[in-house]
Structures are given as C-alpha cells and as structure tokens.
Write a structure and sequence with these properties.
Chain A: This is Extracellular solute-binding protein. The complex is a heterodimer. By secondary structure, chain A is an alpha+beta fold. Helix content of chain A is about 45%, strand content about 15%. Chain A has 18 helices and nine strands. Chain B has a single domain, classed as Orthogonal Bundle (MetI-like fold), CATH 1.10.3720. In chain B, helix 2 crosses helix 12, helix 3 runs antiparallel to helix 9 and helix 4 packs across helix 7. The chains are: A alpha+beta, B mainly alpha.
C-alpha cells in the first residue's frame, strides 16, 4: 500500500511543479507541492467573503482570513509574533500611521519588485503612506478615510444656516447654533482622537514627520498645526463648541437627541451614525470639510489602512500577488466596498464600485462624488516611526488643554507633543534634523 | 508535626526515603514558581537594563539593535515628569479608599454579627456581590452613571432642580475612581472580618453582657480588638491593591479629559510597553513599583509587629 502511494505522490508533485513553473513562480523551492496556504489578519467585516472570490479563482494560492480586534491590538500581536520569530500571518491589514512602526520593527516586507508598477492606481497621499516617501513599497493602500463634514440639515435649515465652506463659516455657524440653544453644539474638540486632529493638521498643510537623505524631521509644532490648534482652542474657550471626547455613551446620546448638530468625520462615518444615531436617519447631510482657503481646497485623512506582506511570510511573492488582486482588481474592489464596507483607496473605486450612497445617506445621491473629491484633494502626509508616542502625548497634552478651556493651552499642548516626540527619537538613536 | 508513618524497614532505608520525599512533593510548586514567577521577574530585571539603539532612519532589517543601558531606564523612569504625580495621585487615592473601604467593611461585619439583623444571609450576599463583578465591568457601569447626559441619577437630580455635577471633570475624578474600588472591595473585606468575628467564642460576649456591657461596648472593647489581626491583613491586601490600581481608571479614561495615560504608575507601565513600544522603560518602572509594594507591605507588617500573625497569643 505504502509503496504504491509513494510513486503516485511523486508524479503528482512533479506535475504540480511543472504547472507552477509555467505560472512563473520562483518560490517553488519552498513549496514542492506548488500549493500555497496564506494567512491574512484583517479586522474589516466580512473580509472572508471578499477573499472567497480569490480562493475560487486561485486553487494554488489559498488565503485564510483570521479576524482581528481593531488596529492597535492586531499590531501589538504582530510585533510580538515578529519578536518571537514565528506566528505572524503572511498578509496583514495595517493602518497607515502604523506602517513606519512596522517597518522599523522589520515586520513588513518591501514588495516593490512585485507591485511597484501599481503606483498610478492610487492617490498620491495613499501611495506616500505605504512608501513613506522612499523607493520601497511596504504594502498596497486598501482603504482611505478622507475627512468629511456631516451636519443636521434640518437644524441648519431651521436656523437659516448654510453648510460651511470655510472654517470661518464653521465658527460662525457654531456660534449661531449655540446661541440659539445653549444645549446644542456644532461639534466637539476631542482630546481622545489624535488621528482626527492629525487629519485636520494634514488638511492645513502639515506633515508631522519627514525623511530627507538619511535624516528624520519632526514638525508637529509647525505653523500649519499651530493654526489648527489655535482655531479649536479659541472655539473651546468661548464655549461655542464642546470639549468632551467623541465615542463616549454621552456623545452617542448627543448625536441621537440632536444636541450634536454636526460632526467632522470621515468617509466611513455613515456606519457610525447609523449605529449610534439610527433615529436621526434622513436628517443628516454630508459635505466637504470646511476650507482654510477656499481657492485651493485641501483635505485630510482620518483612518484608512493598507494590506502588507509580513517579513515572516515564506511566500512573499504569492502574498504580493494576492495583495495586488485585493486592492486593484475591479471585482475585489467592488466586494471591498459592498461586502467589507470599506472605502477602497484605488482611484478607480468611485467609478466602478461606489455607485449608490450608503443606506444612511440614501437621500444624498452625490455622497460618493463628494467622497471622491475629498479623496482627490487629500494632501500627502508622512507618518513617523514613533506615531504611537506622539499620539499618546496628544491624549495627555490636549486632554489637559480641553479640560482647562484655555486657547493658550492648545498651542502649548503642541509644544509638549513636539518635545515628547523628538526626545523619544533622540533617546532611541534616530538621526534628527536640526 | 513530623509524624512520619512508622515502617518495618531498617532505619537506614527510611531516612534515605524521607530525605527525598518532601522535595518530590514540593517539586511541582517549585517548578511552577520558577517558571511563572522567578523567571519572568529575572527577565523583567534583565530587560530593564537594556534599550534599543537605532541607526540611520530606523527602517528595515538590522537597523535596530538591543544594547546594554545600565541604569539609564531607571533614571529616566524616576525622573519622568509624569511619574511622581502618578505616585502622589495613587497615594491620595489610597488615603480615600483604604480607610473608607475597611471602615465600611468593619461596620457591616459588626452589624451582621450583632445578631439582631434578621436579613443576615441576604444582606451578606448583597454586600459581597459587587466583589464578583470584574473591575472593568464595574467601571463601565459606573461610567454610565457618572456621565451627566446618560445617568439616571442625573435625571433624578434634574427633577429635583439640581444641576448634576460632572464628576469625571476636574478633581472629582479621583473620588469617582475611588468610589468604584470601595463599591467593589467592601464586600470582600467584610466577609474576611465577619469570618474572624464568627470564630470568637460566644461565651466571651455572654460574660460581657452579664457584666452589663451594651452591644456598642462589646463591639468596641471586645470585637474590634479581637479582629485587629484580620484588619491588619485586609489593610495590607488593600494597600497592595491600591498600588496596582489600573482597570478602573483605564476603563474610564476614554470618557474623560481628566484621566491621562499616566494617571497611575501601572498605567504608565502599560503606556510605555504597549503604546510606546518601549518594554525596557516599562520593565524598569515595573521593578520600581514591585519593590515599592514589597517595602510598603512588609514595612507595615513589621510596624504592627506581632499583632498581625499571633492571634492565638491574644485570645
């Protein structure tokens, strides 16, 4: 019995080798059977259903999705697996701001040899996020989170207000709303959401980190970010907007009962509104973010992630093929948008996949036209190797500032963030400009 | 105590056996101690003396190496501007929690023991029940009650014409966190004290009563002195729990601007290790906290001396 099976297995293996050789795979040495099983960590909902289409079309490269808990826990888990030397998946969903940290820990592989020519498929800002402005490619953009402004159209109408196009308009709308009803606010300054503030700074023209030659620079405390901090500090000090954090039971209640009249969110916000404020369906409208200078519109990103191949993967080439399919194939993009509920980063997405508005904005047929415009005008922003340090410094420094309700404290908080971030990099031995 | 089974074998074999047997019984415990306590402590201490050194941009393979750091992490963690405030904060928190919690626990234990309460078992279970609620769940629950816009208490206060205070803002937050710990811990300490009270021979009270002592006098002159060792033990446990306060402020943090990521020393350890990805500083701070806990708890036991462990000498 045993003797009969062995030659048969040998023939099969040889046949499979020939097939893969035809397919041009050079990894055959690693997998004599020709079949490759890839693991994929992701937290996007229903990602396994998106991947089913790939598995059906590629019997030799089978991908299994392992659902993870959000961004931070998944990254911690990956870094632990990298340090331990085993246990990491082949493919990993990674938030843009985590990529420098992952690259620094040597957790993700450079796949420029396999996917370098896909640059034109993505907006510059997203491409910059996966290359960090270098020649290497540390993953392909999967979804992006262009920021958008959401407001209660019914309340704006009743007060005779227009959707703000500039930040000055936003401030006067905030004052008008709070004056008309002192329980209502157009928005809140959330000291708990560093990604949100980073997006607003990005819109103002900031890029908190930069790479030049072999040197990092940190510009958290630059003029553009200061302008944003001063603006919000003034609004909090005069009491026109709230200073409570977002994503609390209290904030949810405020969205629902109409005391939060607007929200500076991102393209994924309809899902949050639907979950937290279902009873207000049909009363909201989406618009572009208010502008600093309406003649040169700009936008920032809040959230968004890439699909990376980990450095531990034994099948990097096949993994890169899968990553390329997932983020550029029209069918995959459509599935990402409709099944996994993400806003695909690919520039073709708006035309091919995003034709009907999200259910919560059913009355706004141009929802994805606005989103595409928001995505198009998003300015490049480079994240650094210690985003985590800067972000936790944001939580503490801006928490104090929001608590004190003093405009001066907001710009001081930026100074603290800048100092904490540069101190940390110097301590670790990074070469810093200046 | 050393009652070894008498055997018919020669004394020589017996001694040889007796030498090995205790060790083989102890082996699993020692092994577990070594693997899950001693080794991690040793590794933490080792990590606390290391740091990473980055070359160039710090991107890609081999750009990060682990190097010897000496006591650098210790100086950095002790001189961190966030460290001392977090220590003071926990000190203030302990001053609120420990006396209040133990005072309440003692009062309730005495009331239950007084024998006049008919609701004994039910009351005991009701008071003990919060201890069975995990700290994170308790904090979420109280978090809801604290947020003025979603709290049913706030509705009640509004109905009475009072503006509910925002306890998660400003200095109120220390009391808000302490309240959760007191709510959760009183029941446990009450059970310990109550059990100690029940172990007291009843005829002591009878004698006191024959001498004309009231319930309050019995409690003050007899019961409290007798449960003092138990009170000391619960104090030590409570102080250790105070130094380790973590889950409550961590859970309330997203709801408030007042709780920083370094609000307590353990939160600083968590931030350094998992948010900042700097396990080396986190290890150094952990070692400092462990030593401090050790010193405080053993210092206290030394201070109160024999009262803690020599109950039998006093009765």
């Amino acid at each position: 019995m045993r003797k009969a099976v062995l030659p048969l297995a040998g023939v099969l293996a040889a046949a499979l080798l020939v097939t893969t050789a035809c397919g041009g795979s050079d990894d055959a040495g690693d997998n004599p059977g020709g079949k490759v099983a890839l693991t994929y960590w992701s937290w996007a909902p229903n990602m396994d259903q998106v991947v089913e289409a790939w598995n059906a079309a590629h019997p030799d490269i089978q991908v299994t999705v392992y659902k993870q808990d959000g961004g931070d826990p998944a990254v911690t888990k990956l870094l632990t697996a990298i340090q331990a030397g085993s246990g990491a998946p082949d493919v990993m969903q990674a938030e843009y701001q985590k990529i420098p940290t992952l690259v620094a820990a040597d957790a993700v592989a450079d796949i420029s040899a396999d996917v370098g020519d896909l640059k034109t498929k993505f907006p510059d800002s997203a491409w910059n996020a996966v290359t960090l402005g270098t020649e290497a490619v540390y993953g392909l953009p999967q979804d992006s989170g262009p920021m958008m402004f959401y407001y209660r159209a019914d309340i704006f109408d009743s007060l005779g207000l227009q959707a703000p196009t500039t930040w000055d308009d936003y401030a006067s709308a905030a004052r008008a709303i709070h004056t008309a009803n002192d329980k209502q606010y157009l928005g809140t300054f959330s000291a708990n959401d560093p990604g949100w503030f980073a997006g607003l700074a990005q819109q103002a023209g900031a890029s908190w980190w930069g790479i030049r030659d072999n040197t990092w620079s940190v510009a958290v405390d630059d003029a553009d970010t200061q302008r944003v901090a001063r603006y919000w500090g003034a609004l909090v000090q005069e009491g026109s907007i709230d200073n409570k954090p977002m994503y609390t039971p209290e904030w949810n209640a405020a969205l629902n009962d109409g005391t939060q009249v607007g929200w500076i969110g991102a393209v994924w916000s309809p899902g949050v509104l639907e979950g937290n404020a279902a009873s207000t369906k049909g009363k909201w409208k989406a618009a572009l973010l208010p502008q600093w200078d309406a003649t040169t519109p700009a936008n920032g990103n809040w959230g968004g992630s890439a699909t990376s191949v980990t450095s531990q993967s034994k099948h990097k080439k096949q993994a890169a093929q899968f990553v390329a399919w997932l983020n550029t194939d029209p069918a995959a993009i459509k599935a990402l948008a409709s099944t996994a509920n993400v806003y695909p980063a690919s520039v073709d997405a708006a035309a091919t996949a995003l034709t009907t508005p999200p259910a919560f904005f059913a009355d706004q047929p141009d929802f994805y036209t606005i989103a595409a415009e928001a995505s198009r005008i998003t300015t490049p922003f480079t994240y650094g190797p210690n985003v985590n340090v800067a972000y936790s410094a944001y939580n503490d420094a801006f928490g104090k500032a929001a608590q004190s309700k003093q405009a001066a404290a907001f710009t001081e908080a930026l100074t603290t963030m800048q100092r904490t971030t540069t101190d940390d990099m110097r301590n670790a031995g990074f070469t810093l400009a200046d | 105590m050393t009652a070894f089974p008498t055997t018919t074998r020669t004394p020589r074999t017996a001694t040889r056996r007796s030498a090995g047997v205790p060790y083989s019984f102890l082996a699993p415990a020692l092994l577990l101690f070594a693997a899950f306590l001693a080794a991690p402590i040793a590794y933490t201490t080792y990590l606390s003396l290391r740091r990473t050194q980055v070359t160039g941009l710090g991107l890609g393979a081999g750009s990060r190496t682990e190097v010897w750091a000496g006591l650098e992490n210790y100086t950095r963690s002790l001189t961190d501007p966030d460290f001392l405030p977090s220590v003071y904060r926990v000190g203030a928190y302990g001053l609120i929690v420990v006396p209040t919690m133990l005072g309440l626990a003692l009062l309730m234990a005495l009331l239950l023991d007084a024998g006049r309460t008919r609701v004994g078992t039910f009351a005991r279970t009701a008071i003990f029940l919060p201890y069975a609620v995990p700290a994170v769940v308790a904090s979420l629950l109280w978090g809801f009650l604290y947020l003025p816009r979603v709290s049913p208490f706030a509705d009640l206060l509004h109905a009475l014409g009072i503006t509910p205070p925002d306890v998660l803002a400003g200095s109120g937050v220390l009391w808000a966190v302490a309240n959760i710990a007191i709510w959760g811990g009183t029941g446990f300490n009450m059970i310990v004290l109550y059990t100690a009270l029940r172990a007291v021979p009843r005829d002591l009270y009878e004698a006191a009563r024959l001498d004309g002592a009231s319930d309050v006098q019995i409690a003050w002159r007899i019961k409290i002195p007798i449960v003092t060792p138990a009170l000391i033990m619960t104090s030590v446990f409570s102080i250790i729990a105070t130094v380790q306060v973590f889950a409550e402020p961590m859970t309330l943090r997203p709801l408030s601007n007042t709780i920083s990521t370094t609000w307590t020393p353990l939160m600083k350890v968590y931030r350094d290790a998992f948010t900042r990805n700097d396990v080396y500083s986190a290890a150094a701070t952990s070692v400092v906290i462990a030593l401090a806990t050790f010193l405080v708890s053993f210092g206290l036991l030394k201070l109160v001396g024999s009262r803690a462990f020599h109950q039998e000498d006093r009765t």
